[in-house]
Amino acid sequence: MTRKVNIGNVTIGGGSPITVQSMLNVPAGDVAGSVAQARALEAAGCDIIRAAVPDREAVRLVPAIKAAVSVPLVADIHFDYRIALDCVAAGVDKIRLNPGNIGGEERVKQVADACRAAGVPIRIGVNSGSLEKHILAKYGAPTPQALVDSALYHARLLEKFDFTDIVVSIKSPHVPTMIEAYRLAAEQLGCPLHLGVTEAGTARIGLIKSAVGIGSLLCDGIGDTIRVSLTADPVEEVRAARDILKAVGRGGGPEIVSCPTCGRTKIDLIALAGRVEEALADCRKDIKVAVMGCAVNGPGEAREADIGIAGGNGEALLFKKGEPAGKYPEDRIVDVLLEEIEKL
Ligand code: SF4
């Protein structure tokens, strides 16, 4: 079990529910645009929002976003420790920074002291593309253990100043490397792990890579918070992350079970399933909803579902917990299903 780390009003680690993170992608100088995107991410179900703070001027994002959303805000900082100090003073909830990159122990101490005083944790974000030279020289390549060694190197710099309120991510665009690295990290580190496949790609392949990488680790009981990186609108990242949580049975909202259709199907199941999925996109209830093509196998195949429909000829059967609960015409069944889900 990992340690618990509090990020504002959200706890990660120590068996807490898996949280979903995403990152703003509008230019940091655009405060109004950043605020609007933060609101959109919160509405989509993002539990923790991260924003790049590339210079001291961009620190003004912190109070602006904090005033607009109630989810915690993480400042993503590279190299300049003064930005970290400014963000802490501005009320940020977490810092993402690698202490080995900020130019010496005195600066690490200042950041550690400021974060400790404010109760602000630090995420160490190791990436296979930016490993330290001494670690690359030892391993010759960004191997899984090289990535973990890098995380340990940064963590020890903070621990030197009694700072242990740490979260670690160890990302690689190569899914098998990422999986192995996190497995090693789970054995060698006691802090919460932030899972992600970095530079995963565009919406479809990025989701597939993330689902394989993040999903496998979650199935092994590894991982405390997740971020799906997509070359797409970050709202898509949140939806993808929630779908991964649903797929591994770790929350995220309704899990829709729908059959592939076959020669027995006599209703337009593909359209019906699409409507149900769209209508439930922002629903947070952890229920299983079945959308099946026929009444012969439908209820049986979806017996585990809380509620569902099974298609007939121009009509469909509603069922709850595998038991029939009324027959409705094809053009009304989705509305009836949604009304019933509302009541659950
Ligand atoms: S539930 Fe019925 S329609 Fe759907 S695939 Fe199975 S047999 Fe075919």
In short:
This protein is an alpha/beta fold and 344 residues long. It has twelve helices and 15 strands.
Structure description:
With 344 residues, this protein is α/β, with parallel strands linked by helices. It has helices at residues 31-44, 61-68, 81-89, 105-118, 133-139, 144-159, 175-188, 203-219, 234-247, 269-279, 298-301, 333-343, and strands at 5-7, 10-12, 19-23, 48-52, 73-76, 94-96, 122-127, 166-171, 194-195, 225-227, 255-258, 288-292, 307-311, 315-320, 323-329. Helix 3 (81-89) runs parallel beside helix 4 (105-118) and helix 8 packs parallel to helix 9 (234-247). The chain starts with a strand and ends with a helix. Bound molecules: iron/sulfur cluster.
Q: What strand line-up does the widest sheet have?
A: 8-7-6-5-4-3-10-9
Largest sheet: 8 strands, parallel
Class per helix and strand makeup: alpha/beta
Low-confidence segments, ≥5 residues, pLDDT <50?
Answer: none
Q: SSE order, as H and E?
A: EEEHEHEHEHEHHEHEHEHEHEHEEEH
Output the number of helix runs: 12
